[in-house]
Amino acid sequence: MSNGIDSKTKRDKLTPRREPYWEILKKGSAVGFRKLESGDGTWIARWRDDDGKQKYRALGNFERYDDAAKVARDWVEACEQGASPKVTTVKEVCEAYIDALKAEGRRSAANDAEGRFNRLIYGEAIGKLAIDKLKTSAIQKWMNEQIDDDDEADDDDIRRSKDSANRNLASFKAALNLALRNRLVATDAGWKTITAFKKVGARRKDAFLSMEQRTALLKACPEDLQLLTKAMLLTGARPGELARLNASDFDKRLGCLTLRGKTGERTVAISTAAAAFFAEVGKNKIGAAPMLATAYGQRWNKDAWKKTFKEAVTAAKLPDAVVMYSCRHTAISEMVLAGMDSFIVAKLAGTSVAMIETNYGHLRHSVVTTINPAR
């Protein structure tokens, strides 16, 4: 029999009090509504275990009785199946996993997982969630937020960030599965269907543009995109760094360019050909003006160049694998082929020496036939 909480009209007439107004769901369980002085209220579930002890779970705010009752029934059912009745957060689940690894003597694995959890879960919204309220959408959002996909990210940056996210997910799911085995949650529905990003474990083979292909590509580009593309071929910089470039960032006297991007700010000495290019492009521009802009005078971004660049690739009859990053890859390859020191190449490209050695070191054994990346 209803005691006055199954409709908003009835709840509005209740007298505020700390003790909830209860309605029985079935023998041993009930859902309650605690009326507040403000006129609002919160919901709570109650369940009696096999020892006769009452267990409670705060449910939060719901507009409809049916919604609160459903959550209460789900919690009671999980408890009856052996899940812990107490609130266990995702952070606590991860901490328990770390402790379990250490207890097994897997100290290295524990340190690795703990580092990932410290960066991505502890102190974050997902870490504060109750394990039984963790949803697939929350984990997918957590995965997507780890992807390096801004204007300065090249294809390999994105690949590497996805590969890293996959490893983070593996540690996270291991912690969640342990919680399931320990009956801290009744089901793995919140994370079972989450899968790793595909085909990101190995660096893809980047398209290298021959001199003929570069000429064809530049010819197929509209004038504004042609300048951006040529700048990449001359410098090996990321497109986002070149989009951020101001006219004042080029020092004509010293032949230096100041670039700002994901690796911070760097000032690099550029080739004679690159210096001549920027001197011409920056002619008569005020210091704060974009060095390279669209036909409408706006700064470039990924949305502005992606479609147009793809159309130019098609018009130039180049392989589908050619993307904007291919220009950066081509420029870096030419630098390495020309015998340039890895430290200098890394500084010019805004990356690490390790990345240059790992991905381009094999080119030192090749014979260079062309040095100037764009003529």
The parts where pLDDT drops under 50 for at least 5 residues are 367-373
Profile the largest sheet.
4 strands, antiparallel
CATH class of the largest domain: Mainly Alpha
Compute the average pLDDT.
Answer: 87
Q: Termini distance?
A: 87 Å
Query: Helix and strand string, N-terminal first?
Result: HEEEEHHHHHHHHHEEEHHHHH
**Total count of domains:** 3
Provide the structure class: alpha+beta
Q: Quick one: how many beta strands?
A: 7
CATH superfamily of the largest domain: Intergrase catalytic core
What is the CATH architecture annotation of the largest domain?
Orthogonal Bundle
For the largest sheet, list the strands in their spatial order: 1-2-3-4
- Strand residue percentage: 5-15%
Query: What is the approximate shape?
Result: elongated
Report the radius of gyration as a whole number of Å. Answer: 30 Å
Write down the CATH topology of the largest domain. Answer: hpI Integrase, Chain A
The proportion of residues forming helix, as a percent range, comes to 40-55%
Helix tally?
Answer: 15
Can you walk through the features of this model?
The chain has 375 residues and is of the alpha+beta class. It folds into three domains: 8-80, Double Stranded RNA Binding Domain (2-Layer Sandwich), CATH 3.30.160; 90-181; 211-365, Intergrase catalytic core (hpI Integrase, Chain A, Orthogonal Bundle). Helix content is 46%, strand content 11%. It contains 15 helices and seven strands. It has helices spanning 8-12, 65-80, 90-103, 107-120, 125-128, 136-144, 155-181, 211-220, 223-235, 239-244, 272-281, 302-315, 324-337, 342-349, 353-360, and strands at 21-26, 29-35, 41-48, 54-60, 250-251, 256-261, 264-269. It has a four-stranded antiparallel sheet, covered by helices on one side. The chain has a three-stranded antiparallel sheet with strand order 5-6-7. A hairpin with a 2-residue loop joins strand 1 and strand 2. Helix 9 (223-235) packs parallel to helix 13 (324-337). The longest helix has 27 residues, at 155-181. The protein is elongated. It starts with 7 loop residues before the first helix and ends in a 15-residue tail after the last helix.
